[in-house]
Amino acid sequence: MARALTEPQADTERFWEDMRARLADFALTLHPGKTRLIEFGRHAARKRRARGLGKPETFNFLGFTHISGHSRRGEFQLKRKSRSDRVRARLQAVKEELRRRMHETIDEQGAWLRRMVMGFNAYHAVPTNAVTLSDFRHNVADLWRRTLRRRGQKGAVTWDRMTVLTNRWLPRPRITHPWPDKRFAVKYPMWEPGAEIPPAGICAGARSNACLYRDSYADGPGIGNVFFGLRQPRCANVTCPLQAVFLCLVEAGSR
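-> structure tokens emitted (255 positions)
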């Protein structure tokens, strides 16, 4: 399963045709029921509204439904929500396992449910998915309550008692994964101009104050003006680390 994001629409359609042609060289084809072009992104809602269409389409990837939404400030925001069919399947599996464990002690059942909920949250605790986490915890508690009620005829298990058991055994939902841009900035600190994380504090030997990051080979063959410093070079009015690498290399090659 793969997702390809391209812009503008003409590039998307050309990519689609090239992909079909490439697969045809190996006697392969794209599944018509699993391949589609959708309008998605920052301007999708505005463009579809201008054409009298509804909200942008969504797509599923890696267990999440990706939604073209907006934040509380009205800005574009990519929202991820756990796939509803996967959540229902998981709850069905929990129901069957609880029935198998029906006559275990409450502590044994609670310990297993704690591990199960923690495992679910470890993957699904992404930003914009807090509602799904809360609903999953509530549904697990309800399944647990129904299982306890079927163990005997001594009395119904009230929600007051289940609230105590839930707070004791089931961890509360908490977003643990960072936003995608924060995660990417940590893995690729110089992924674009103006990245928040500066490069490593290493600098090549400088020959003069005119350009603080010029090495001794600037006038000879090889690569000159290598920039690895925390400070920005004073040559060519560079304003960001990534531009500094490019501009300094260009300047060295032109000598």
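The chain has three domains: 9-59+67-79, 84-169, 188-255.
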